[in-house]
Amino acid sequence: MMNQNLKIDPYGFREYDARWLYEKDINLAGIENLGKGLGTQIIKNTKKNNPRIIVGHDYRSYSEEIKLALKKGLISTGCFVEDIGLSLSPMVYFAQFNLDADAVAMVTASHNENGWTGVKMGIKKGLTHAPEEMKELKDITLNENFLKGQGSERQIENFQQIYKDDLINKNKINKALKAVVACGNGTAGIFAPDILRGIGCEVIELDCKLDWTFPKYNPNPEDMKMLHAIAKAVKDNKADIGFGFDGDGDRVGVIDNEGNEIFSDKIGLLIARNLSSKHKNSKFVVDVKSTGLYSKDKVLLDNNCETIYWKTGHSHIKRKVNTEKALAGFEKSGHFFFNHPLGYGYDDGVNSAIQVCHLLDNQANKVSDIIKDLPTTYQTPTMAPFCKDEEKYKVVEELVKQIIDIKNDKILIDDQIITEVLTVNGIRFSFEDGSWGLIRASSNKPSLVIVTESPKSDARKKKIFEFIDDLLKRTGKIGEYDQKI
Q1: Distant-in-sequence, close-in-space partners of 431: CB < 8 Å, separation ≥ 6
Q2: DSSP sequence for 307-357
Q3: Strand arrangement, sheet containing 336-338
Q4: 263, HSE (Cβ side, Cα atoms, 13 Å)
Q5: 1 Cβ contact partners less than 8 Å away, ≥ 6 residues apart
Q6: Nearest to 421, CA basis, from 411, 408, 320
Q7: Distance of alpha carbon 387 from alpha carbon 349, whole angstroms
Q8: φ/ψ of residue 329, rounded to 5
Q9: Strand arrangement, sheet containing 427-431
Q10: How far is residue 484's CA from residue 288's CA, in Å, rounded to a whole number?
Q11: How, if at all, do strands 52-57 and 80-86 pair?
């Protein structure tokens, strides 16, 4: 018998996590059912009656009440919940290794605006749900195929310190780096400054006080407002580097000593180069939004390293890093994944910032000089034009067909033919000169995702964007962009 008061919008089950507008699209009864669904799924997959599940929550005004409802659902199926309290997503992932637990559930909507809630979850250590698991979870939850059992819960005290110490103790640096640490008033504020101080940085805090109203801007390192604020603080304080962390601490954005944003895919390339001399013959995984420079990078090729372009999304890259036994993975949005011996394979924004500190620790140069070693490319920010959830995948499918036809018919775009297409995730189409464009559906918002890059000129980058924008307009199904060049 369906609960009349139950609210749970099926579209909240995304490709690799779950996100809803709280109370509009899901209520506490819906969250409790999500807990029952997740508990049932974990028991089925682990074949244990009382699996142990690590649960944490981010610093939003309503995250704790959502966590309570989720735990209630989990416990009713027979799960033993171990609650580590206020957490970053990577702290929950770390706890699964450290406490040898069976699964994780982190209550967070990451960098989404206030009003959003969600859960990042995983069963296999270091991995989060992929589309197959999300589909299974959705089916169990919406059909209410729940197991019943006797669960329990306990609070794990002081886990924040255990997580901080783990990162600090193995990452001390020699050089006194001055770092601006910006947290947009999100949860990272009680972690990132302490950890970076702990490894030896002089830290200048920017919006590190927890404030769930996010008074300045969303804690999102792809948000231009946040990046501009960090840039100003870096210049004002003559800092060596600026770091911006997202709401649940699994991503980082980086600003150089001159106040310029370095897109995360370029930082990834610098880190990959830095690692490749010590770890020859390694594999790196990057997402389809990332710069085209990896595939032809001289340093990586000299060290016999291979780069694989894969689907955007933290779960997709995490899994690919895992299955390919890659040394690291880098996502344009600022998720970095360090596999053994550098990490446990999951994305941790603070560990990513630490790897940037190691990069600077190994060099006499400033980060702005190190970046100058990379070839210049002209790259758009990630642009998200509105497209309904129920239409976005179909729209992209049509556009993929059109672009493949354009390639096959050798039609010129700004006087060049398309030489290569990659369709693991939407379509990434490349030209002879190394320029490329990307069109894909966003996995967690009703929008598409558009990126273009050219190693040749800013004008060329814009021409490719105009070509894409024109295709989009013709569909009649695209609304406003969140930001546009």
Answers
A1: 413, 416, 417, 418, 419, 464
A2: EEEE-SSHHHHHHHHHHTT-SEEE-TTS-EEE-TTTSSSSB-HHHHHHHHH
A3: 306-310, 283-287, 328-330, 336-338
A4: 20
A5: none
A6: 408
A7: 29
A8: -135, 150
A9: 378-379, 448-454, 436-441, 427-431, 418-422
A10: 19
A11: parallel
- Using CA atoms, how far residue 424 sits from 21, 82, 181, 306, 311, in Å, is 29, 37, 35, 18, 6
Across residues 234-258, what is the average pLDDT? 96
Q: Which two tokens stand for residue 177?
A: 């780096």
| Whether 71 contacts 81, CB under 8 Å | yes
Tell me the DSSP string of 404-459. HHHHHTT--BTTB-EEEEE-SSSEEEEETTS-EEEEEE-SSSSBEEEEEEESS-HH
Mean pLDDT in residue range 7-31: 95
- Each residue of 351-366: b (16+ CB within 10 Å) or e? bbbbbbbbbbbeeeee
- The answer for residues whose C-beta is within 8 angstroms of residue 22's C-beta and 6 or more apart is 62, 66, 115, 116, 117
Q: Give the three-state DSSP class for 22.
A: strand
Can you tell me whether residue 21 is helix, strand or coil? strand
24-50 confidence digits (pLDDT tens): 999 999 999 999 999 999 999 999 999
- The one-letter amino acid code at 123 reads I
Given this model, what pLDDT does residue 69 score? 98
Q: What is the pTM of this model?
A: 0.88
The pLDDT tens digits of the residues spanning 333-343 come to 889 999 998 99
Nearest to residue 183, comparing CAs of 241, 230, 246, 240?
246
Q: Give pLDDT, residue 113.
A: 87
Residue with tokens 């980058």: 461
Tens digits of per-residue pLDDT, 279-303? 999 999 999 999 999 988 999 999 9
Closest residue by Cα to residue 94 from 195, 163, 154: 163
Mean pLDDT of 59-67: 96
Integer Cα distance of 223 and 217 in angstroms: 8
d(CA 99, CA 114): 31
pLDDT in tens, 85-117: 999 999 999 999 999 999 999 999 988 889 999
Which residues does the annotation mark as catalytic?
110
Mapped onto helix, strand or coil, the DSSP state of residue 74 is helix
The pLDDT assigned to 373 comes to 87
Among the listed residues 84, 76, 118, 87, the one whose alpha carbon sits nearest the alpha carbon of residue 101: 84
Q: Which domains does the chain have, with CATH numbers?
A: 10-157 (3.40.120.10), 158-374 (3.40.120.10), 378-475 (3.30.310.50)
